[in-house]
Design a protein that fits this description.
By secondary structure, this protein is mainly beta. 3% of the residues lie in helices and 48% in strands. The N and C termini lie close together (9 Å).
């Protein structure tokens, strides 16, 4: 037994683990949506608008609750039927607008969804040109709309900031890259990112926006075949781009991860659904969800949950040994020692499938006693949030 424990300890200290995985969830109940809106409010994802199964534009919206893996219809979008709208989630509030209506008119209206009353509230109209397929991101409590296909039928390069506290719009410096539409957008560490899309041709360039000084900086190109109409999400300070059209009715199921720390792209676990474009995507509690979408045939209604290995790192990668765990492996109790005393500490324990199996709160300490508390033999992942700063701690092993 001692030899087994030693081998497990060496594996923990000297190996990396790839934790990325896809899990299929409950199918979307209406079988198909494309060119839709998708966003997150707290612990729920929302999908609606777009084009439905038989090709009609729709104003229907649905809520996905990952805790019970169910879809529930909510109030129809009050702005009417809408294709390729813009959506922003800011501080637990969600806003939807712009896009094309049922008469193929470019709209500039702007609406907030209230999940408490299940109602839509009209807000200040967008002051720029009406548009579809714009880039959107949320930074420092404000929303941003960039580029898109304008009502003048040209790709745009203007940038607009929305302040939900004052319900006001402010034009910012123009995007310096080529005017575009159908590009991907990401929000990472209060910086906005735009990648690819249609310019005069399909593009692969990446740009970062800093809202503090209202400036743009070009970053590394995504090392992929040219493609557009992707899905995107952010998990654990990494950006992800998935699926999209490769051109000539050829569709991708590749997932790319962007690391802003070293400006690098890395191909990750292949999306387990079929290749597609115009997907719905949102993230909740360190899980991402992606699905639905095109092409016109076949019509997809599946939804997939993604767990990223960027959320779970190896023990040896922790802040120059600022955190230690001993003993590890352990049979009854282990101690987590921190580099300093923290006022608030949240500890979460996940099994190998990414399921939360234990969670505790601590205050004003630099040591945590972690009790087995019924955990079966095996490997687990820890996550600590210390004074509101998230740190992922890697692996522990429970062994009799």
């Amino acid at each position: 037994m001692q030899r087994t424990i030693l081998i497990l300890f060496l594996l923990i200290c000297n190996s990396q683990i790839t934790f990325s995985q896809w899990t299929q969830k409950a199918n979307f109940p209406t079988n198909y949506l494309r060119y839709m809106a998708s966003f997150t409010i707290y612990n729920n994802g929302y999908v609606g608008g777009g084009i439905d199964t038989i090709g009609n534009k729709t104003s229907c919206f649905w809520k996905f609750d990952p805790s019970v893996d169910t879809w529930t219809p909510i109030a129809d979008f009050a702005g009417g039927k809408r294709v390729s709208p813009s959506t922003i989630s800011v501080q637990g509030r969600a806003f939807v607008g712009l896009g094309l209506d049922s008469s193929m008119v470019f709209r500039t209206d702007w609406w907030e969804y209230d999940p408490i009353t299940n109602s839509w509230i009209q807000k200040a109209n967008f002051p720029g040109l009406g548009r579809q397929s714009a880039c959107i991101f949320s930074l420092n409590g404000k929303g941003y709309i960039v580029s898109g296909n304008g009502s003048n039928h040209l790709s745009l390069n203007d940038v607009w900031e929305y302040n939900p506290s004052s319900d006001t719009w402010t034009q910012k410096n123009n995007f310096p890259g080529a005017s575009r539409q159908q590009a991907v957008s990401l929000s990472i560490n209060n910086k906005g990112y735009i990648c690819g899309g249609w310019t005069v041709s399909l593009s692969l360039d990446t740009w970062r926006y800093d809202p503090i000084n209202d400036s743009w900086q070009q970053k590394g190109n995504i090392p992929a075949s040219q493609f557009t109409d992707y899905g995107s999400f952010t998990l654990c300070n990494r950006g992800y781009v998935c699926c999209g059209e490769l051109g000539y009715f050829n569709y991708s199921n590749i997932l790319w991860e962007y690391n802003p720390d070293n400006d690098s792209w890395l191909q990750k676990s292949i999306f387990h659904g079929a290749g597609r474009d115009e997907v719905a995507s949102f993230s909740i509690n360190n899980k991402a969800y992606i699905g639905l979408g095109g092409p016109d045939q076949p019509k997809f209604h599946d939804l997939w949950e993604y767990t990223a290995d960027s959320c779970y790192t190896n023990i040896n990668e922790l802040n120059n040994n600022a955190i230690t765990i001993f003993p590890n492996p352990f049979s009854t109790t282990t101690q987590i020692t921190l580099s300093q005393t923290y006022h608030t500490i949240s500890l979460s324990v996940y099994d190998m499938q990414g399921k939360l199996v234990a969670q505790n709160q601590y205050a004003d300490t630099d040591k945590i006693q972690l009790n087995r508390k019924g955990l079966t033999n095996g490997m687990y992942f820890l996550k600590l949030i210390m004074d509101d700063k998230e740190i992922t701690t890697g692996k522990i092993v429970v062994s009799d």
